[in-house]
Design brief:
The protein is α/β, with parallel strands linked by helices and about 140 residues long. The protein has 2 domains: about 70 residues, 2,3-Dihydroxybiphenyl 1,2-Dioxygenase, domain 1; about 60 residues, Signal recognition particle alu RNA binding heterodimer, srp9/1 (2-Layer Sandwich), CATH 3.30.720. It is built from 3 helices and 8 strands. A 4-stranded mixed sheet has the order 1-4-3-2, covered by helices on one side. It has a 4-stranded mixed sheet with strand order 5-8-7-6, with helices on one face. A hairpin with a 5-residue loop joins β7 and β8. The radius of gyration is 16 Å and the shape is globular. The two termini are about 25 Å apart. InterPro entries: Glyas_Bleomycin-R_OHBP_Dase (IPR029068), Glyas_Fos-R_dOase_dom (IPR004360), GlyoxalaseI/FosfomycinResist (IPR050383), VOC_core (IPR037523).
């Protein structure tokens, strides 16, 4: 394959109600440093390694007019959006506890899974499911 056509995975964009509030929440609840929050509060980024976690409002020209409106799940707690944010930690129990203490809604406490990972789930302030898991050891 032509190396000029091999992409780097650059961003995951999360559409939220309030960019500044979500950036502050993710920094506090999940331990990220804020890379950028523009003055208009229409774009925010967290330092998250090679891939950037970015936030932008649910309703703006780019989402509504060009690519379509953001579809939200119904209000039922048993429904979720078409994406999930997955974060890896050395100490999943401590990460889960901190997230809940900082305002994440508990869904399922960390427990060992059959594939060798310890996983817990919370919801962020926009209702998005966030998976907190241990690192998966390569086989």
């Amino acid at each position: 394959m032509d190396p000029n056509l091999r992409p780097a995975f650059a961003y995951t964009v999360i559409y939220v109600k309030d960019v500044a509030e979500s950036v502050a929440f993710y920094a506090s609840a999940f331990g990220y440093n804020v890379r950028r929050l523009d003055e208009s509060h229409r774009w925010g980024e967290l330092e998250s390694g090679e891939t950037t976690i970015a936030f932008t409002p649910k309703h703006q020209r780019e989402t509504d007019e060009i690519t379509g409106a953001v579809k939200e799940p119904a209000s039922s707690e048993k429904q979720r959006s078409q994406m999930e944010v997955c974060l890896a930690y050395e100490d999943v129990d401590a990460a889960y506890q901190r997230a809940v203490e900082k305002g994440a809604v508990p869904v399922s406490p960390p427990e060992p899974r059959e594939w060798g990972q310890k996983v817990g789930y919370v919801r962020d302030i926009d209702g998005i499911v966030v998976r907190l898991g241990s690192y998966v050891k390569p086989q």
